[in-house]
Specification:
264 residues; three-stranded antiparallel β-sheet; eight-stranded mixed β-sheet; 34% helix; globular; alpha/beta; Rossmann fold
Amino acid sequence: MTTTRATFEIDGRRLSYLDFGGTGRPLLALHGHMSDAASFAGLAERLAPGWRLIGLDQRGHGFSDRAGDYSRAGYLADIAALLDHLGLDSVVLLGHSLGGINTYQFAARHPERVAAFIDAEGPASLGLDGHNPLQFLLALPYEAPTRQELVDAMGPMAAHFGDLARERADGSWALPFHPRDMVDSEDQVHGDHWADWDASTCPALLIRAANGVIPQEQADAMVQRRANTRMVELDTDHFVYVNDPDGFAKTVNEFLAELGGIDE
Protein backbone atom coordinates (compact mmCIF):
# COMPACT_ATOMS: atom_id res chain seq x y z
CA MET A 1 0.00 0.00 0.00
CA THR A 2 1.14 3.52 -0.78
CA THR A 3 0.39 6.46 1.49
CA THR A 4 -0.74 9.60 -0.28
CA ARG A 5 -1.37 13.13 0.99
CA ALA A 6 -4.17 15.22 -0.47
CA THR A 7 -6.01 18.44 0.34
CA PHE A 8 -9.44 19.98 -0.03
CA GLU A 9 -10.98 23.31 0.89
CA ILE A 10 -13.72 24.36 3.27
CA ASP A 11 -14.67 27.99 3.90
CA GLY A 12 -11.50 29.21 2.23
CA ARG A 13 -9.26 27.00 4.36
CA ARG A 14 -7.17 24.08 3.17
CA LEU A 15 -7.43 20.81 5.07
CA SER A 16 -4.88 18.06 4.52
CA TYR A 17 -5.30 14.33 5.00
CA LEU A 18 -3.36 11.10 4.59
CA ASP A 19 -4.78 8.08 2.82
CA PHE A 20 -2.72 5.11 3.96
CA GLY A 21 -3.90 3.06 1.00
CA GLY A 22 -5.91 -0.02 0.26
CA THR A 23 -9.38 -0.63 -1.08
CA GLY A 24 -11.06 -1.78 2.12
CA ARG A 25 -13.73 -0.24 4.26
CA PRO A 26 -12.77 3.29 5.35
CA LEU A 27 -11.67 4.00 8.92
CA LEU A 28 -11.34 7.75 9.53
CA ALA A 29 -8.78 8.63 12.22
CA LEU A 30 -8.70 11.88 14.20
CA HIS A 31 -5.60 12.80 16.22
CA GLY A 32 -5.26 14.79 19.43
CA HIS A 33 -3.80 18.21 20.18
CA MET A 34 -0.30 18.96 18.83
CA SER A 35 -0.41 15.88 16.63
CA ASP A 36 -1.44 15.07 13.05
CA ALA A 37 -2.58 12.25 10.78
CA ALA A 38 0.93 10.82 10.53
CA SER A 39 0.68 9.74 14.17
CA PHE A 40 -1.48 6.84 12.95
CA ALA A 41 1.20 5.40 10.65
CA GLY A 42 1.99 2.65 13.15
CA LEU A 43 -1.66 1.63 13.29
CA ALA A 44 -1.86 1.66 9.49
CA GLU A 45 1.00 -0.86 9.35
CA ARG A 46 -0.80 -3.14 11.81
CA LEU A 47 -4.35 -2.66 10.57
CA ALA A 48 -6.22 -5.80 9.63
CA PRO A 49 -6.82 -6.49 5.92
CA GLY A 50 -10.10 -5.16 4.62
CA TRP A 51 -9.72 -1.71 6.12
CA ARG A 52 -8.45 1.55 4.62
CA LEU A 53 -7.12 4.09 7.12
CA ILE A 54 -7.60 7.78 6.34
CA GLY A 55 -6.21 10.34 8.77
CA LEU A 56 -7.22 14.01 8.84
CA ASP A 57 -4.86 16.78 9.89
CA GLN A 58 -7.47 18.59 11.93
CA ARG A 59 -7.77 22.37 11.71
CA GLY A 60 -4.64 24.15 12.86
CA HIS A 61 -2.60 20.94 12.93
CA GLY A 62 -0.02 19.40 10.63
CA PHE A 63 -0.39 20.56 7.03
CA SER A 64 -3.91 21.93 7.48
CA ASP A 65 -4.47 25.68 7.66
CA ARG A 66 -5.11 27.53 10.87
CA ALA A 67 -8.75 28.39 11.54
CA GLY A 68 -10.52 31.43 12.91
CA ASP A 69 -11.96 29.37 15.74
CA TYR A 70 -11.53 25.99 17.39
CA SER A 71 -15.10 25.43 18.46
CA ARG A 72 -16.79 22.08 18.74
CA ALA A 73 -18.99 22.96 15.77
CA GLY A 74 -15.96 23.89 13.70
CA TYR A 75 -14.16 20.60 14.20
CA LEU A 76 -17.32 18.62 13.43
CA ALA A 77 -17.97 20.62 10.26
CA ASP A 78 -14.49 19.70 9.03
CA ILE A 79 -15.23 15.99 9.50
CA ALA A 80 -18.46 16.27 7.53
CA ALA A 81 -16.62 18.17 4.80
CA LEU A 82 -13.98 15.44 4.50
CA LEU A 83 -16.65 12.74 4.22
CA ASP A 84 -18.38 14.77 1.51
CA HIS A 85 -15.06 15.30 -0.28
CA LEU A 86 -14.37 11.56 -0.23
CA GLY A 87 -17.93 10.68 -1.24
CA LEU A 88 -18.49 8.63 1.91
CA ASP A 89 -21.98 8.42 3.35
CA SER A 90 -20.96 6.54 6.49
CA VAL A 91 -17.69 5.49 8.12
CA VAL A 92 -16.20 4.05 11.25
CA LEU A 93 -14.47 6.79 13.25
CA LEU A 94 -11.42 6.45 15.46
CA GLY A 95 -10.13 9.28 17.59
CA HIS A 96 -7.53 9.96 20.25
CA SER A 97 -7.99 12.56 23.01
CA LEU A 98 -9.37 15.67 21.22
CA GLY A 99 -10.09 13.38 18.28
CA GLY A 100 -11.90 10.91 20.55
CA ILE A 101 -14.26 13.61 21.75
CA ASN A 102 -14.79 14.67 18.15
CA THR A 103 -15.75 11.11 17.20
CA TYR A 104 -18.54 10.69 19.71
CA GLN A 105 -19.82 14.23 19.24
CA PHE A 106 -19.96 13.71 15.48
CA ALA A 107 -21.79 10.41 16.02
CA ALA A 108 -24.28 12.18 18.29
CA ARG A 109 -25.02 14.94 15.82
CA HIS A 110 -24.70 12.98 12.57
CA PRO A 111 -25.74 9.41 13.53
CA GLU A 112 -26.51 8.47 9.94
CA ARG A 113 -22.86 9.01 8.99
CA VAL A 114 -21.21 6.91 11.72
CA ALA A 115 -21.47 3.10 11.66
CA ALA A 116 -19.33 2.76 14.80
CA PHE A 117 -16.63 4.63 16.66
CA ILE A 118 -13.51 4.06 18.74
CA ASP A 119 -12.76 6.64 21.41
CA ALA A 120 -9.21 6.41 22.74
CA GLU A 121 -8.76 8.56 25.82
CA GLY A 122 -11.52 11.07 25.02
CA PRO A 123 -13.38 11.91 28.27
CA ALA A 124 -17.10 12.63 28.50
CA SER A 125 -16.34 15.46 30.89
CA LEU A 126 -13.11 17.38 31.39
CA GLY A 127 -11.63 20.68 32.43
CA LEU A 128 -14.48 21.69 34.69
CA ASP A 129 -11.94 23.12 37.16
CA GLY A 130 -10.86 25.71 34.60
CA HIS A 131 -7.27 24.45 34.38
CA ASN A 132 -5.76 24.35 30.90
CA PRO A 133 -2.87 21.84 30.78
CA LEU A 134 -1.59 23.29 27.49
CA GLN A 135 -1.00 26.77 28.89
CA PHE A 136 2.74 26.08 28.97
CA LEU A 137 2.80 26.10 25.16
CA LEU A 138 2.49 29.88 25.13
CA ALA A 139 6.18 30.04 25.99
CA LEU A 140 7.03 28.33 22.69
CA PRO A 141 8.02 30.28 19.56
CA TYR A 142 5.95 29.51 16.48
CA GLU A 143 8.20 30.48 13.55
CA ALA A 144 11.69 31.67 12.66
CA PRO A 145 13.77 32.33 9.53
CA THR A 146 15.83 29.16 10.02
CA ARG A 147 15.40 25.83 11.77
CA GLN A 148 18.28 26.52 14.12
CA GLU A 149 16.84 29.87 15.18
CA LEU A 150 13.49 28.23 15.89
CA VAL A 151 15.04 25.43 17.90
CA ASP A 152 17.30 27.82 19.82
CA ALA A 153 14.30 29.98 20.73
CA MET A 154 12.60 26.94 22.26
CA GLY A 155 15.22 26.68 24.96
CA PRO A 156 14.80 23.59 27.16
CA MET A 157 11.54 22.73 25.38
CA ALA A 158 13.51 21.97 22.21
CA ALA A 159 14.06 18.47 23.56
CA HIS A 160 10.34 17.86 23.19
CA PHE A 161 9.38 20.04 20.22
CA GLY A 162 12.55 20.60 18.19
CA ASP A 163 12.00 17.62 15.93
CA LEU A 164 8.56 18.95 14.96
CA ALA A 165 9.96 22.00 13.14
CA ARG A 166 9.02 22.06 9.45
CA GLU A 167 10.30 24.07 6.54
CA ARG A 168 7.70 26.16 4.74
CA ALA A 169 7.49 27.01 1.05
CA ASP A 170 9.19 30.38 1.60
CA GLY A 171 12.17 28.74 3.34
CA SER A 172 11.21 29.79 6.86
CA TRP A 173 10.54 27.27 9.62
CA ALA A 174 7.55 26.78 11.92
CA LEU A 175 5.88 24.35 14.28
CA PRO A 176 3.04 22.23 12.81
CA PHE A 177 0.66 24.00 15.20
CA HIS A 178 0.38 27.48 16.67
CA PRO A 179 0.73 27.47 20.47
CA ARG A 180 -2.10 29.99 20.93
CA ASP A 181 -4.40 27.85 18.75
CA MET A 182 -3.73 24.81 20.92
CA VAL A 183 -4.53 26.69 24.12
CA ASP A 184 -7.73 28.07 22.59
CA SER A 185 -8.73 24.65 21.29
CA GLU A 186 -8.12 23.04 24.66
CA ASP A 187 -10.26 25.69 26.33
CA GLN A 188 -13.11 24.99 23.92
CA VAL A 189 -13.01 21.22 24.22
CA HIS A 190 -13.44 21.48 27.99
CA GLY A 191 -16.92 20.93 29.34
CA ASP A 192 -19.62 18.47 30.25
CA HIS A 193 -20.24 16.40 27.10
CA TRP A 194 -22.34 13.64 28.65
CA ALA A 195 -25.37 14.49 26.50
CA ASP A 196 -23.34 13.84 23.34
CA TRP A 197 -21.78 10.69 24.78
CA ASP A 198 -25.21 9.28 25.62
CA ALA A 199 -26.91 10.36 22.39
CA SER A 200 -25.76 7.82 19.79
CA THR A 201 -26.47 4.09 19.70
CA CYS A 202 -23.96 2.68 17.20
CA PRO A 203 -21.33 0.18 18.43
CA ALA A 204 -18.58 1.93 20.35
CA LEU A 205 -15.26 1.03 21.92
CA LEU A 206 -13.70 3.10 24.69
CA ILE A 207 -9.94 2.61 25.03
CA ARG A 208 -8.74 3.80 28.41
CA ALA A 209 -5.12 4.07 29.47
CA ALA A 210 -4.44 2.95 33.03
CA ASN A 211 -2.29 6.06 33.47
CA GLY A 212 -4.30 8.29 31.17
CA VAL A 213 -6.73 11.20 31.51
CA ILE A 214 -10.05 9.43 32.07
CA PRO A 215 -10.68 8.65 35.75
CA GLN A 216 -11.73 5.05 36.39
CA GLU A 217 -15.09 6.14 37.80
CA GLN A 218 -15.86 8.20 34.72
CA ALA A 219 -14.78 5.44 32.34
CA ASP A 220 -17.03 2.94 34.12
CA ALA A 221 -19.94 5.38 33.89
CA MET A 222 -19.31 5.92 30.17
CA VAL A 223 -19.74 2.20 29.55
CA GLN A 224 -22.72 1.83 31.87
CA ARG A 225 -24.62 4.84 30.57
CA ARG A 226 -24.22 4.31 26.83
CA ALA A 227 -25.77 1.27 25.20
CA ASN A 228 -23.72 -0.86 22.80
CA THR A 229 -20.42 0.22 24.39
CA ARG A 230 -17.51 -1.72 25.80
CA MET A 231 -14.14 -0.74 27.21
CA VAL A 232 -10.60 -2.06 26.97
CA GLU A 233 -7.94 -0.77 29.33
CA LEU A 234 -4.29 -0.70 28.28
CA ASP A 235 -1.48 -0.55 30.81
CA THR A 236 0.15 2.60 29.48
CA ASP A 237 -0.24 6.38 29.51
CA HIS A 238 -2.41 8.81 27.55
CA PHE A 239 -0.48 8.28 24.30
CA VAL A 240 -1.68 4.72 23.89
CA TYR A 241 -0.87 4.38 20.19
CA VAL A 242 2.76 5.47 20.77
CA ASN A 243 3.64 3.64 23.98
CA ASP A 244 1.68 0.44 23.36
CA PRO A 245 1.37 0.27 19.57
CA ASP A 246 0.84 -3.48 19.46
CA GLY A 247 -1.79 -3.47 22.20
CA PHE A 248 -3.53 -0.51 20.62
CA ALA A 249 -3.62 -2.13 17.18
CA LYS A 250 -4.78 -5.46 18.60
CA THR A 251 -7.63 -3.75 20.46
CA VAL A 252 -8.68 -1.78 17.39
CA ASN A 253 -8.52 -4.80 15.08
CA GLU A 254 -10.55 -6.97 17.43
CA PHE A 255 -13.30 -4.35 17.57
CA LEU A 256 -13.28 -3.89 13.80
CA ALA A 257 -13.56 -7.63 13.33
CA GLU A 258 -16.81 -7.54 15.30
CA LEU A 259 -18.31 -5.06 12.83
CA GLY A 260 -18.53 -7.52 9.94
CA GLY A 261 -22.29 -7.77 10.20
CA ILE A 262 -22.91 -4.02 10.28
CA ASP A 263 -24.14 -2.39 7.11
CA GLU A 264 -21.57 -0.10 5.57
